[in-house]
Amino acid sequence: MESTSPKKFRAELKDYLEMALKEPLRIQRRSGENFVLMNEDHFAGMQTEIASLQRRLLAMGDLASGRTSEYSGRESRLARLKK
Questions:
Q1: Structure pTM?
Q2: 79 lies in a domain?
């Protein structure tokens, strides 16, 4: 991940925006605060992945604690999908 200062970022904004299309960019203040600039599509993909992992984690927690029950529908999932 490329790093820069706010002063250099402002001076070369166009170049850094082009860089952020390919990989995230860290902007570091002297005070120690850090910010990350990234492409919106990359950010949206990360948000989707986080949501997916959270759902999986919740499901695993349900399985581990026994809060699940066997599917008792009349037809199998495969049969329902074939319709």
A1: 0.65
A2: no
